[in-house]
Amino acid sequence: MTSVPADVQQSGTHRPRALLATASVAVALAAADTYVVVLALQDMMQGVGLGIDALQRATPIISGFLLGYIAVLPLTGRLTDIVSRQRVLVGCLLLFVIGSSVTALSVDLSVMVTGRFLQGVGGGGLVPATLALVAELWPAGRRGTALGVVGAVQEVGSVLGPLLGALILAVADWRMIFWVNAIAGVLLAVVITVIGRGATAAPRVAARVPRWWSALTAVVALATVALLGLALWAPDFLTTSIQWGGPFVPYGDSTARLATPIGVWGLCALVVLLTLSVRYWWPVARRIDVIGAILIAAALGALVLTFAASNPETQVVGPMGYWLLPVAALACVLYLWRHRALADPLIAKGVVTGRVRPALLVSLCVGTAIVAIVVDISVLARLTVTDSQTTAALVLVRFLVAVPVGALVGGALLRKAAPGMVAAPGLLISALGLFHMSTWGSPELKSWLAPTVVLVVVGFGVGLAIAPVNDAALHDAPPSAHGVVSSLVVVARMIGMVVGLALLTAIGLHRFYAKVQSLTDPTGAQITAAGVLQVQTVFLGAGIVTLIAAVVAITLGRHTSRGATRPV
Q: Is the Cβ–Cβ distance between 482 and 131 less than 8 Å?
């Protein structure tokens, strides 16, 4: 008779695969949203009154999402170790829905950035919550396939994002993209609630709240949604009405929809709602190092804004970077001091130990390798073989499709092989492929077979490492810190993407300008050749980083670690 793992028994749900599948779809939705604005950005700019010449002002539309995605991940990870993972998943989805709705309704840049930030917070929190859920539902030594599924769907989102955006833009405007996100988020939250009903994995930490207080909170919540929703929507049949249009008239010379009577009423209702909600979240907040979470968020946020807001063609760090980096350093120092002083800090003492450390380093390097290929393979294609952005994107798809396939295979291989023996060879072949790509020019990309094979091999090798990294980190982390460790692995990968791209691009640009300056009267072909040299430099740097990751990945383990129970 097949035994049920203790973790599954503890979780109180007998449908782990259904719960994992639904959570994985949610992860894919959030991952797709990271890339969905690629095609819609110009239309979104026009929607908030920005012209194409104001691209720099539109940077917060992208960096706001990244900021929300990365900065609060440790806090979200900690939450998944305190309350039910299903509740965290539902909460993150609701934040994602709110952010999507705000973005869809926005006509002001500040409102749009707020919506994107909320989307990032909700979408980012889904990943560590899902990884921790896998650790809860499957015992050590049996998590490989499940972790491979999570890694695969996260990468599938990078493929589906632009395709979904293009499909919706073909039949509707950019706002429909975010309404689709909101509808999908609500449906997924409902499904997770139904599937996870009866779960008892985490002790109840919320205080008992009287029914009248809950009813009052619900009424204020409905009023807040109605008032702010109407303020942001500003339907014509109300704003042009003599009888009902007064609350929609902006104060003074303002054009912001929230700077209206109904907008102010909505914001006041929001303040009341937050006050009433204290009784629900305060018992949980008391168990979290809130100040530590703020310090980590400040450090990560400063780092993201420093590099994500930069123009890679002219600068390594953004315009605020030279004072944001000291802020990040100070926040790190203060958190480390607090970490040593507190008995129960945000990241518990002794958590980042064993194979968690190499897992974080490998995740950082993998993020750098992925973003280097995603960004620069299209650049190389447009420099050498095509002027079409669509054709250049099709070259990239060969890599993007191979990554989730590698993630699935890597997870499956963990049944028989140790994490290090799966991740290290995969990263080694990816490094060799990147070294080969560092020699590419026009002749190589004009062929279809050779670049396809290389890109597929590189993507497959990178994908192989995803599940082993998570498996090793979760195995060596105590069960009480699975959420935090999962969040740190995701943070490391995202930091690798943001910082790694900026540094590799800076090195490539240095070689580009050195090459151009060495020419007395450069022709167009010579400048193009210098641009190809820049991309080749980025691929070479990514290859070195991936080779380092392959060496470090060996320390993730050379022997399998089996759980005592059979999988569900």
A: yes
- What is the per-residue pLDDT across 427-443, written as a single tens digit (0 to 9) for each? 999 999 999 999 988 77
Of residues 121, 127, 131, the one with CA closest to residue 28: 127
Tell me the C-alpha distance between 499 and 300, whole Å: 11
How far apart are alpha carbons 51 and 41 in whole angstroms?
11
Tokens representing 62? 């992208």
Alpha carbon distance, N-terminus to C-terminus of the chain: 12
How many angstroms separate the CA atoms of 81 and 326, rounded? 31
Give the length of the chain.
Answer: 568
The per-residue b/e assignment along 368-379, b for 16 or more CB within 10 angstroms, e otherwise, is bbbbbbbbbbbb
**Between the CA of residue 135 and those of 131, 156, 472, what are the distances in Å?**
6, 22, 11
Query: Do residues 82 and 493 touch, judged by C-beta distance below 8 A?
Result: no
Determine the average pLDDT of the residues in 116-133.
Answer: 92
Confidence tier at 53 by pLDDT (50, 70, 90): low
Exposed/middle/buried for residue 302 (C-beta within 10 Å: 0-12, 13-18, 19+): buried
Contact 343, 127 (CB under 8 A): no
The CB density around residue 525, as the number of other CB atoms within 10 Å, is: 8
pLDDT confidence tier of residue 320, bands split at 50, 70 and 90: confident
The whole-angstrom separation of Cα 12 and Cα 154 is 26
Distance CA 232, CA 110 (A): 12
pLDDT higher than threshold 70 for residue 561 = no
Taking alpha carbons only, the member of 117, 59, 39, 55 closest to residue 307 is 59
Q: Please give the structure tokens belonging to residue 108.
A: 């002001």
